[in-house]
Design goal:
heterodimer; A: about 300 residues; alpha/beta; Rossmann fold; 2 domains; 13 helices; B: alpha/beta; Urease, subunit C, domain 1; TIM Barrel; about 20% strand
Chain lengths: ~300, ~425
């Protein structure tokens, strides 16, 4: 099957075959990173704008490298804070950028739905690089690619996603993707960080870390945002890390020996992950980052309509 | 100057009338009702096949003047009202400056006198500058013509102050209209809290943010003996509280908007900011509960919460967008099409909730076609099929989620004080 969408806005809107196509396309592009000359002409003459309304190092750099390895012209546009703060509205900024005829706009924004709003306003392809607490589809795709490479398959795997589920776009995209591919998902965290009715997305909920990580194939730890304490959702970092931080002891006591530890980054060492776990043998965190470039190359390639020219 | 409205189906719930009759208007008053009336010299309006009702009253409208004339003015807002079949509107106090003093009330009334095409009844602020900290000059506002008091858009969070407002206004017979929303529970929310907000990653406003304040306001009404009117009831919990309170004899009344009757949180999936309002679109269960309450009278009336905003305030990010939608020009068509046509709400019930009941609730003239009543009439064409086109609104604003909906039933003519204000 081929790719027919103009945009990549969410994992929720994709079917399993589309997700697999994206993951497989990314897998085939991984070897470019090992080449002496990391450049293929697939997107020569195409223009990609990275429209980042939220601070991001990893994701923006990843998209930039992906575009450049594909020979596209990549422009970074960083708007500090909200569009309102700048004076120009989000939509006006977007229309101005669209007037310069980019082929793809990659957008990161603190507001849920920002990518969808762009997609119905602009004629070019839109890639959602994270919109508020809604979705972060390329993160889920790189997580899936990482899981596939380490476990060989998706069907029947079990995953625990641990931490601040309520505010996590990574959790949402992964929940949709993993469920569509036949995986079992448990979300875990203090009840104040578990969104209401999350079970209706087809996941189980655990309120103890030990229960969540027992016998799963993958543990995905999420970053805890520091501001969650000021809003009264958790009492202290100390208490959070005591009950929800993943340490070697807890891992050895509860988890399977072949478990994968994942984290979308950036890691709060000593909060959700102890350094021994983050750097330990179970961790595939840096592998995730490497696969991020391949996934973004795949997405850009499929959206820019240059399939098959990569080799 | 006489006007004879001939041969229409006259639906006048205040007088238990639903029959094909003529209505004779003399000057600005209803003169007589009956079959085959004759009135030499009267202008004759053939209403065959049309529905003749007491003028519709919307007791929850934002006219935005003074201060936000780019959204709406008394002139455009009352034209929208007339075009939508309303002969009177009550305008909320959250203007700039706030309608918390007589000068602003006088200004609004003067504007309405010179530029309004329907009757305008100002609602005064409960607290100074809607600040929630000190009472506005309520007695003078009442004397100046404010028909109720509300900090609508905000909730008076200080229960003691709200209690004092209830007590202080008791002698005026002016109800307090509560925007029931616990600010802390609702803080930062952009839509109803539920499975849809969880999926969309939008911050949710729990139903409990409304319910706890409805409960508080009912208890304070019980304590003080004041009449409290709950604006835009949107939850099953609030319905239950109002129903129980009414059964106990508490002086509580309530309104519901067309959008809370007809839409649910599912509409937000589009991330279209025209589905963003406060209170937010709720769950299906809530929508069913408010509809049931409207039919059984637990909810007394329909009000639009007409809240005009410029396109720039609605086209961007959902969580940054302004709350509210316009409603004056869509309400009647939507309600006739979605509630009356399928037989869910009998036409006389709908007419009562739009005319008799809001008039009684605020003690306004109108709401009845009895001889001697003001000649405010809403004439409906039940067969007209039309598509809602925001570009054709009389309102200065276009923010509606109902654009493109095709409905059957439309305001035909709007008569205010014996004169045709819209056709």
């Amino acid at each position: 099957m081929g790719w027919t969408r103009k945009d990549l806005l969410s994992i929720r809107e994709l079917d399993a075959a589309e997700i697999v196509l994206l993951v497989e396309t990314a897998a085939s592009l991984q070897e470019i990173a090992g080449r002496e000359i990391k450049k293929v002409p697939a997107l020569r003459g195409k223009t990609i704008v990275n429209l980042f309304y939220e601070n991001s190092t990893r994701t923006r750099t990843s998209f930039e490298i992906a575009g450049k390895w594909l020979s596209a012209d990549v422009v970074n546009f960083s708007a500090g804070g909200s569009s309102a703060a700048k004076g120009e509205s989000f939509i006006d900024t977007a229309r101005n950028i669209a007037a310069m005829s980019p082929d793809v706009v990659v957008v990161r924004h603190a507001s849920a739905g920002a990518a969808e709003i762009l997609a119905r306003t602009l004629p070019c392809s839109i890639v959602n690089a994270g919109d508020g607490a809604h979705e972060h589809p390329t993160q889920a795709l790189l997580d899936l690619l990482t899981i596939k490479e380490h476990k060989g398959h998706f069907e029947g795997l079990s995953v625990a996603i641990v931490g601040d589920i309520t505010h996590s776009r990574v959790a949402r995209s992964n929940i949709h993707g993993m469920r569509k591919l036949g995986m079992t998902v448990t979300v875990a965290g203090p009840p104040t960080l578990i969104p209401p009715f999350v079970q209706e997305l087809g996941v189980k909920v655990a309120y103890r870390l030990e229960d969540a990580i027992r016998d799963v194939d993958v543990i995905m730890m999420l970053r805890l945002q520091q501001e969650r304490m000021s809003s009264g959702l958790i009492p202290s970092l100390r208490e959070y890390s005591r009950y929800w931080g993943l340490t070697l002891d807890k891992l050895r006591a509860e988890a399977r020996p072949d478990v994968l530890i994942m984290h979308p980054g950036p890691v709060n060492r000593g909060v959700e992950l102890s350094p021994e776990v983050a750097d330990g043998p179970y961790s595939v965190i840096l592998d995730q980052v490497a696969k991020g470039v391949a996934v973004r190359m795949g997405v850009l390639l499929l959206l820019a309509g240059a399939r098959g020219e990569a080799a | 100057m006489s006007l004879l409205v001939r041969n229409g189906r006259v639906v006048d719930p205040a007088n238990s009338l639903d029959a094909v009759q003529d209505v004779l208007i003399a000057g600005d008053r209803i003169e007589r009702l009956g079959p085959n009336l004759t009135a030499p010299g009267a202008t004759v309006l053939d209403a065959t096949g049309k529905i003749v009702c007491p003028g519709f009253i919307d007791l929850h409208v934002h006219l935005r003047e003074p201060g936000q004339e780019y959204k709406e003015t008394v002139a455009t807002g009352t034209r929208a009202a007339a075009a939508g079949g309303f002969t009177a509107v009550c305008c909320m106090a959250n203007t700039h400056p706030v309608n918390d003093n007589r000068a602003v009330t006088d200004y609004i009334r003067a504007k309405a006198e010179t530029q309004g095409v329907v009757r305008v009844y100002p609602i005064g602020a409960v607290t100074r500058n809607l600040g929630g900290e000190a009472l506005a000059e309520l007695a003078e506002l009442a004397e100046a013509g404010c028909v109720a008091f509300s900090d609508d858009g905000k909730c008076v969070m200080n229960a003691a102050l709200y209690r004092h407002a209830m007590e202080y206004t008791l002698p005026f017979g002016t109800p307090l209209i509560s925007h029931a929303e616990d600010h802390a529970l609702a803080q930062g929310g952009a839509m109803n809290e539920g499975v849809v907000s969880t999926e969309l990653g939008l911050p949710g406003i729990p139903a409990a943010a409304e319910d706890v304040m409805v409960a508080r306001d009912i208890l304070l009404a019980e304590l003080t003996g004041a009449h409290v009117h709950i604006a835009h009831v949107s939850t099953a919990g609030a319905v239950r509280l109002v129903r129980d309170a009414k059964a106990r004899g508490v002086r509580v009344t309530a309104e519901v908007t067309p959008h809370h009757l007809l839409l649910t949180e599912e509409a937000v999936r589009s991330f279209d900011a025209n589905t963003k309002m406060n209170p937010p679109l709720r769950s299906k269960r809530d929508a069913e509960a408010v509809l049931e309450a409207l039919i059984d009278g637990t909810i007394d009336c329909i009000a639009t919460d007409h809240a005009p905003h410029a396109s720039s305030e609605k086209e961007g990010e959902f969580d940054h967008a302004a709350f509210g939608i316009v409603g004056l020009e869509t309400a009647v068509g939507l309600l006739m099409d979605r509630l009356v046509k399928p037989g869910i709400v009998p036409l006389p019930t709908l007419v009562a909730r739009l005319s008799r009941d809001p008039a009684r609730l605020l003690g306004l003239p109108g709401g009845s076609l009895a001889p001697g009543a003001p000649a405010d009439l809403t004439l409906l064409d039940p067969a007209a099929r039309w598509t809602i086109e925001p570009a054709r609104f009389q309102s200065r604003s276009r923010n509606t989620p109902f654009g493109g909906w095709t409905v059957t039933g439309k305001p035909w003519k709007t008569i205010v004080g014996g004169r045709v204000a819209w056709e």
